[in-house]
Amino acid sequence: MDAMSLIMSVTALLGGALIGGSASLLLLVEGRVAGLSGILAQSLVEPGRSLRWRVPFLAGLVGAGAALHLALPGAFVAPRGAPLGIVGAGLLVGFGTRLSNGCTSGHGVSGLSRLSARSVVATLTFIAFGALATYASRGGAS
Predict the structure, then answer these.
(1) 102-112 confidence digits (pLDDT tens)
(2) Model pTM?
(3) By CB count within 10 A, which of 73, 76, 99, 108 is most buried?
């Protein structure tokens, strides 16, 4: 294994551990599942309810990304595609999270770790449609 592959493996392991640890800590301390779409939606819909943990959780996500961008700007790439297409994709993701009653973090991280059958189905659906969208956006089998 070369040095770059080792670095990428270690950073992926650390990132996964941080995500799993934060989801577990939120469940232990607050009794809440770390589903980001639900956390954001509840912050907007019911701003007076449980903001004491939602705002810091969301601020930590945004703040960590901003700090990483400042420290390693080359680690980020500009989105490819037309701005209208990116907005449309974002709206479809939002629709999908409401339709499945959760997002990849809620189902894929928290739901799978709790052995939820519904989360297994949702996560497999996310992966299948993500693969299909990638295949279609790249022009299919060329």
Answers:
(1) 888 888 888 88
(2) 0.70
(3) 108
